[in-house]
Amino acid sequence: MADERDFELIEEEEEEVVTFVDEDGNEIDFDVIAVLDYKDLWYIYLSPVKPTEGFEEGDLFICRIDEDENGEELYVPVEDEALLSDLMEEFDKLVESEEDEDAASDEAE
C-alpha cells in the first residue's frame, strides 16, 4: 500500500525562520528546512539558526503542525522514537529525490 506524500524542501533564498521561547523566556530561532505531509499529518523540520544548547550542528527538530482552538498554527514536538525514525527516513528520501532532480537538471544543461 503506497502512501500519498506531499512535501517541500525550503530553498535557501526562501528561508523562513520560526522563533520558539524556552522555559526561561529565551527566544530561539530555527530555520525551516522542510514541511512534509506524512500519513495525513503535516510536519515541519527545523534547524537552529545558531548553536543552541541541546542541539548539535546539523540536528533537526521535528514538530507536528497543528492548530489551537483559535485556528492559530501550533508546533507540537515529535517525541515518539518510532515516528521520528519514520519521519527521518521520509526526509532522507525527500533530500535524495531533490538531489536526483538537481543532477538531472544539471545534465540537461
Write up this protein.
- This protein is an alpha+beta fold.
- It has one domain (6-108).
- Helices cover 26% and strands 38% of the residues.
- It has one helix and six strands, in the order ββββββα.
- Strands 1, 2, 3, 4, 5 and 6 form a six-stranded antiparallel β-sheet that branches.
- The N and C termini lie far apart (37 Å).
Topology:
Layout (H helix, E strand, L loop, with lengths): L5 E4 L7 E5 L5 E12 L2 E8 L12 E7 L5 E5 L3 H28 L1
Antiparallel strand pairs: 1-3, 2-3, 3-4, 4-5, 5-6
Protein name: DUF1292 domain-containing protein
Organism: Candidatus Stercoripulliclostridium merdipullorum
InterPro entries: UPF0473
Overall domain count? 1
- Describe the largest sheet: 6 strands, antiparallel
Extract low-pLDDT stretches. 1-5
State the order of secondary-structure elements, H for helix, E for strand: EEEEEEH
Number of distinct beta strands? 6
Strand content: 35-45%
Count the DSSP helices: 1
Q: What class would the helix/strand composition place it in? A: alpha+beta
Rg from alpha-carbon coordinates: 15 Å
Spatial separation of the terminal alpha carbons: 37 Å
- Mean of residue pLDDT values: 82
Give the % helix: 25-40%
Global geometry = globular
Pfam family, one: DUF1292
Organism: Candidatus Stercoripulliclostridium merdipullorum
Protein name: DUF1292 domain-containing protein
Brief synopsis:
With 109 residues, the chain is an alpha+beta fold.
List keywords for this structure.
DUF1292 domain-containing protein; alpha+beta; 109 residues; UPF0473; 26% helix
